[in-house]
Amino acid sequence: MQRITRNDCRRHTPTLPRILKKYDTVMTADDTFKTKTKLVVVVVVVVVVVVVVVVVVEVVVVVIKVVVVVVVAAVVVVVVVVVKVVVVVVAVVVVAVVVVAVVVAVVVVVIVVVVVVVIEAVVVVSSSSKSIVIIIIVVVIVVVLVVAVVVVVAVVVVVILVVVVVVVVTQDDHKLGSSNRRDERQEKTVQGRWRLRSRSWTVIRLINMIFPVSCVPV
Predict the structure, then answer these.
(1) How many CB atoms lie within 10 A of CB 47?
(2) Which residue, 61, 93, 160, 213, is the most exposed by fewest CB within 10 angstroms?
(3) Distance from chain centroid for Cα 50
(4) How far from 88 is each of 62, 65, 82, CA to CA, in Å?
């Protein structure tokens, strides 16, 4: 057998500098900043996704409520008016969904573009003012999210007002049509009475011509 000496053990045993040189685990300032930037990006993406999901859910709930209210109100009206209201409501709801989808898509695109541009700017900026730039990023993202929520809520309110106006107008048209039909019926009744009265006077005149009597009115 080959004899192992102390020098052989020293030659094959890794020393601490060799280990540190092989497995360098010390993080530099750039590595720390990159890690923080990645965390900020992840947090921003999660916040954006949560806000978009909440806004979409709120819009869907409001649209469903509007549709239910309009359908319940339309059931009370006549069949013709119900058909008109349903057609108008479906058209309005479709337009509202399309508008909300477009608004949400534009908001998401704007947020993503802002985040990307600001992150690129942060990478270029020196390390002394990186904290200030990160604060600016958060402020810009919050402002954009608030504006997005306000725009979506405004669109939903406008859609609800349009639906209410359409329902009121259709009901007024129905009432106006009913009053017009009532007036026509009354006019026909009056005309029928005048015709009957004129025929009676014609018969009385004929009787007076055949049998002249002074008590018969002419």
Answers:
(1) 15
(2) 213
(3) 16
(4) 17, 16, 10
